[in-house]
Specification:
Elements: E1 21-26, H1 37-45, E2 49-53, H2 88-102, E3 107-113, H3 117-126, E4 133-137, H4 148-152, H5 170-173, E5 175-177, H6 185-195, H7 201-210, E6 214-216, H8 218-221, E7 236-241, H9 249-262, E8 269-273, H10 279-282, H11 284-292
Parallel strand pairs: 1-2, 1-3, 3-4, 4-7, 7-8
Antiparallel strand pairs: 5-6
Helix pairs in contact: 1-11, 2-3
InterPro entries: AB_hydrolase_1 (IPR000073), AB_hydrolase_fold (IPR029058), Sec-Metab_Biosynth_Hydrolase (IPR052897)
GO molecular function: hydrolase activity
Organism: Streptomyces griseicoloratus
């Protein structure tokens, strides 16, 4: 890709180009487009437009297990998820639909967080002409290993917190299920430590109450195949989260290194943000500034 007058030699956005750039924001597991709201306000203040995607089965319209809001939580450990049939293709199609709609407005930067890296990567592989740069915010990069589970089970991820949050048998449920509304103080604290340890305490309960309980199993389990001729030609940035406890920096660095070995023609530009796996909750202004830079 040839750098324009308002981009630097690496294709990154500078202040003058922010007004001609649309950020397409893809959330991670159990979240939704709402996770980006504060970051979008900060981006708007910096002169940048943005659109946040709800992947299938996520957001405030996500179907819940039938007993999720009932006393005693009947069936929470055993009821098969209504999202069990959601596929990786479905999720990539949601990203592609947004990319096609915003392309006419100018330069497009596709931003993915955590498990959203799978659908975002597949969308970019299928239509690289719709993406001018990809940004992975502590996100799964399938260039070295095709499934998110492949990295979650790697030795470099052994110190990750939050794995004890999973309920039931994911294969039987068709989803990776958690219980954001749990009344167990130990469970709630593990959720906070894994994802939101630096989010102000008075905001944490609001954040967890908005989470959906089910992540379609296809998102971490489906292999995503990338090619050098398509995904590999898109300039890419990795925003590392330095105190990430859900996806430790060793696992983030493994994905970066393996992607660069697999696709050496367009290696990652790497920047590090302070804090947890969820900078959109803890420091959205700083995240927005990093994206615009």
């Amino acid at each position: 890709m040839t750098a324009s007058a308002n981009t630097d030699v690496n294709g990154t956005v500078n202040g003058a180009d922010a007004g001609n750039t649309v950020f397409v924001l893809v959330h991670g597991a159990w979240h939704g487009s709402w996770q980006w709201a504060a970051t979008q306000r900060a981006l708007a203040g910096l002169g940048a437009a943005s659109v946040a995607v709800d992947l299938p089965g996520h957001g405030f319209g996500a179907p819940l297990p039938s007993g999720y809001l009932l006393p005693g939580r009947p069936g929470l450990l055993t009821e098969r998820s209504q999202l069990a049939d959601v596929t990786m293709d479905d999720c990539a199609d949601a990203v592609l639909d947004t990319l096609r709609r915003v392309r006419r407005y100018g330069r497009v930067v596709l931003v993915a967080h955590s498990a959203g890296g799978g659908p975002a990567s597949l969308a970019a592989e299928r239509a690289p002409e719709l993406v001018d740069r990809m940004v992975y915010l502590s996100a799964f990069v399938p260039a070295g290993r095709p499934r998110f589970f492949d990295y979650l089970g790697a030795p470099e991820n052994a110190t990750a917190r939050g794995q004890s949050l999973n309920l039931g048998d994911p294969q039987a449920l068709g989803a990776v299920r958690i219980d954001p509304l749990s009344a167990d103080p130990a469970y709630v604290e593990e959720l906070r430590q894994a994802h939101y340890h630096d989010t102000p305490a008075d905001r944490f309960d609001r954040w967890r109450s908005a989470l959906s309980p089910d992540l379609p199993l296809s998102v971490p389990a489906t292999p995503v195949t990338l090619t050098a001729a398509r995904w590999g030609r898109i300039p890419r940035t990795f925003l590392r989260c330095a105190q990430d406890r859900a996806l430790p920096t060793a696992a983030q660095d493994l994905m970066i290194a393996e992607a660069d070995r697999a696709m050496p023609g367009e290696p990652f530009t790497v920047h590090t943000l302070p804090g947890s796996h969820s900078p959109f909750a803890a420091r959205p202004q700083e995240l927005a500034e990093a994206l615009v830079r």
